[in-house]
């Protein structure tokens, strides 16, 4: 039987790092579902196609190959913005969710992170975590990440962006970002990566013991 861990939360809450660490710890396959939305968005941008045509966006979503997803080629800010625009379209979500669900069944277990994993993609996941942090802390993390790569960054613009992305992700009609009723909340505002990992691990271990 496959065991699935669902990790949801807003932009820059620390889901990515945490999900990778958890997948490694338990020997599970990991899928960053944000990359599936980004890949479909990049395909549209590269082809010069509009971002507001649901049928066209659905075609691109159906062609996304999970095996080839690479954050380094999908990390551009414009791709993230375009991803969150097409993520409001039900046909796009249907196409990508189907591929994500297929992935979630891999043996021996999977970790999926995104916005709607515990609520829509894997409602029966063994463990659900909702990772969050204050908008200020999340904007600061994004800022440090960009500066750390040697690029210039504007904190006020990033903060504004984090708030706008939250509004779009939480306000959409189809699969809005929200914690599943049975999700464990993990606020990482004042936690180091290691502390967040340890907190997640205790929650997962406790949940796994109950399942056995
Ligand atoms: O930019 P960030 O890393 O925070 O986001 P991402 O995980 O790369 O996802 C980009 C966008 O895809 C999000 O803002 C969401 O609008 C959308 N998304 C979604 O709707 N559902 C998911 N399961 C994952 C991402």
What is the helix tally?
Answer: 10
The helix/strand order is EHEHHHHHEHEHHEH
**CATH superfamily membership of the largest domain, which one?**
P-loop containing nucleotide triphosphate hydrolases
* SSE class: alpha/beta
What is the CATH C-level name of the largest domain?
Answer: Alpha Beta
- Largest sheet at a glance? 5 strands, parallel
The CATH topology of the largest domain corresponds to: Rossmann fold
What does this structure look like?
The protein has 212 residues and is of the alpha/beta class. It folds into two domains: 1-28 and 110-206, Rossmann fold, CATH 3.40.50; 32-107, no CATH class. The protein has ten helices and five strands. It has helices spanning 15-26, 34-46, 54-62, 71-74, 77-86, 90-104, 117-121, 135-148, 155-171, 193-211, and strands at 3-8, 29-32, 109-114, 127-132, 184-187. A five-stranded parallel beta sheet has the order 2-3-1-4-5, with helices on both faces. The longest helix is centred in the C-terminal third of the chain and has 19 residues, at 193-211. The radius of gyration is 17 Å and the shape is globular. The structure holds cytidine-5'-diphosphate. Residues 11-12, 33-34, 37-38, 80, 83-84, 87, 114-116, 165, 169 line the site of cytidine-5'-diphosphate.
Walk me through the topology.
Blueprint: E1 3-8, H1 15-26, E2 29-32, H2 34-46, H3 54-62, H4 71-74, H5 77-86, H6 90-104, E3 109-114, H7 117-121, E4 127-132, H8 135-148, H9 155-171, E5 184-187, H10 193-211
Parallel strand pairs: 1-3, 1-4, 2-3, 4-5
Bound molecules: cytidine-5'-diphosphate (CDP).
């Amino acid at each position: 039987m496959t065991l699935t861990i669902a990790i949801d939360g807003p932009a820059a809450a620390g889901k990515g790092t945490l999900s990778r660490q958890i997948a490694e710890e338990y020997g599970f396959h990991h899928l960053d579902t944000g990359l599936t939305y980004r890949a479909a968005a990049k395909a549209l941008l590269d082809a010069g196609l509009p971002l507001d045509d649901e049928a066209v966006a659905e075609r691109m979503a159906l062609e996304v190959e999970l095996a080839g997803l690479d954050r380094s080629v999908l990390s551009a800010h414009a791709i993230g913005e375009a991803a969150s625009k097409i993520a409001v379209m039900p046909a796009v979500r249907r196409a990508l969710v189907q591929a994500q669900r297929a992935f979630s069944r891999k043996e021996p277990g999977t970790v999926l992170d995104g916005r709607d994993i515990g609520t829509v993609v894997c409602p029966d996941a063994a463990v659900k975590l909702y990772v969050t942090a204050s908008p200020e802390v999340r904007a600061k993390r994004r800022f440090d990440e960009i500066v750390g790569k040697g690029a210039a960054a504007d904190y006020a613009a990033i903060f504004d962006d984090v708030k706008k992305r939250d509004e779009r992700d939480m306000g959409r009609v189809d699969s809005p970002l929200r914690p599943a009723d049975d999700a464990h909340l993990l606020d990482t505002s004042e936690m180091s990566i290691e502390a967040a990992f340890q907190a997640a691990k205790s929650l997962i271990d406790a949940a796994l013991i109950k399942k056995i």
